[in-house]
């Protein structure tokens, strides 16, 4: 009898790269016939309805304030009881043999005492503690230790993060598998429709030349330093170029907009907010480059998206990004706005370099094989 594998996809569409990471994992496993895969999703999430897999939709009970307190208390005391789960949830999860959790979450697998595999994406709170409240840091510590201790296996996307898990959580390295996730499969075979370019440009009122940065307004995404670098470009060069930002307008967003206004860059920097997913490839392809000034990133999904779509990349030299891009991007120090500005201008002006980097990026990402990716995940599952 086939094993039933539950894939937990409870993650918001506006939640950044993990949303795409989940998509890639489902893409990879959907073709496997060795097990029965059951997707667990929010009641209004329709993205996996056409995959030919069973999709069980529900409203997770872990989101209520009271249940969050119960979960925190259980993590603190080392308990793994499903006290807060409703009967419909218990029934929905009852026949699952193994859970796959692409997000670093404790719901529901930690409390069901069933085997599970989870992905730990990063431990940035250890490097930038000031970007998290004391409570957030404590919760992350409890969560990561509980999950790592109880999981059958842990997946991460770079050797850098594997070392962090071993150093900060004390995990056995044999329990940790490094499996880099490719971009969603549709991007690798994406064919843009020529008639859509003008429509997308009009829809978002895009300038002729722009640098693109899609990211949530979290502290580590380093928007402020990027704005400072762009201010240098505007004031010290003759480049007629704009900066287009996208992502949810939360967290550091007010500080970002205040800085743009303070520097008088409202006409050169535009924040689009959330972008319809079908429009994103066109925003990439019309951009002069993707810039990725992040302070901390295990693996950057937007970089893989840019590579897949043939767009040059200019990015930070931090954490696992050099490991990710190899020779296919121009890198800079994300704490040095002058260096960032210099590298962006270099890529704007050096067309042969931009073309070469785009070609290398495309070749690099095309070396990813969803079948090979699936094989690696299946080896962990088995």
From TrEMBL:
UniProt xrefs under Pfam families: Glyco_transf_4, Glycos_transf_1
Parts forming coiled coils: none
Domain Glycosyltransferase subfamily 4-like N-terminal: 16-180
Name assigned to this protein: Glycosyltransferase family 1 protein
PANTHER family: BLL6006 PROTEIN, GLYCOSYLTRANSFERASE WBBK-RELATED
Record-linked InterPro entries: Glyco_trans_1, Glyco_trans_4-like_N
Domain Glycosyl transferase family: 206-364
């Amino acid at each position: 009898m086939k094993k039933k594998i539950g894939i937990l996809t409870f993650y918001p569409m506006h939640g950044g790269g993990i949303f795409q990471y989940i998509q890639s994992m489902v893409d990879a496993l959907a073709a496997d016939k060795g097990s029965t895969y059951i997707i667990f999703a929010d009641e209004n999430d329709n993205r996996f309805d056409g995959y030919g897999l069973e999709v069980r939709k529900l409203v997770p009970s872990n989101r209520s304030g009271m249940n969050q307190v119960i979960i925190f208390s259980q993590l603190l005391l080392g308990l793994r009881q499903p006290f807060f789960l409703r009967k419909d949830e218990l029934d929905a999860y009852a026949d699952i043999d193994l859970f796959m959790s692409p997000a670093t979450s404790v719901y529901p697998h930690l409390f069901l005492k069933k085997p599970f595999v989870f992905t730990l994406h990063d431990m940035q709170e250890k490097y930038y503690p000031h970007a998290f409240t004391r409570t957030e840091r404590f919760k992350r510590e409890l969560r990561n230790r509980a999950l790592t201790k109880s999981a059958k296996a842990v997946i991460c996307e770079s050797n850098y993060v594997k070392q962090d898990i071993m150093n900060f959580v004390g995990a056995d390295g044999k329990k940790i598998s490094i499996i880099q996730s490719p971009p969603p499969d549709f991007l690798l075979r994406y064919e843009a429709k020529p008639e859509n370019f003008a429509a997308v440009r009009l829809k978002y009122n895009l300038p002729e030349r722009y640098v693109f940065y899609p990211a949530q307004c979290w502290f580590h995404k380093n928007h402020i330093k990027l704005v400072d670098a762009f201010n240098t470009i505007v004031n010290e060069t003759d480049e007629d170029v704009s900066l287009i930002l996208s992502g949810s307008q939360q967290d550091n967003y007010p500080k970002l907009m205040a800085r743009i206004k303070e520097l008088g860059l409202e006409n050169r920097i535009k924040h689009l907010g959330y972008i319809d997913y079908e429009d994103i490839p066109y925003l990439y392809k019309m951009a002069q480059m993707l810039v990725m000034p992040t302070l901390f990133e295990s693996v950057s999904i937007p970089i893989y998206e840019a590579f897949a779509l043939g767009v040059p990349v200019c990015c930070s030299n931090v954490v696992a990004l050099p490991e990710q891009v190899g020779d296919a991007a121009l890198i800079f120090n994300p704490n040095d706005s002058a260096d960032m500005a210099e590298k962006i201008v270099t890529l704007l002006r050096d067309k042969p370099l931009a073309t070469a980097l785009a070609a290398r990026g495309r070749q690099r990402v095309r070396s990813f094989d969803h079948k090979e990716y699936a094989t690696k995940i299946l080896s962990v599952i088995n």
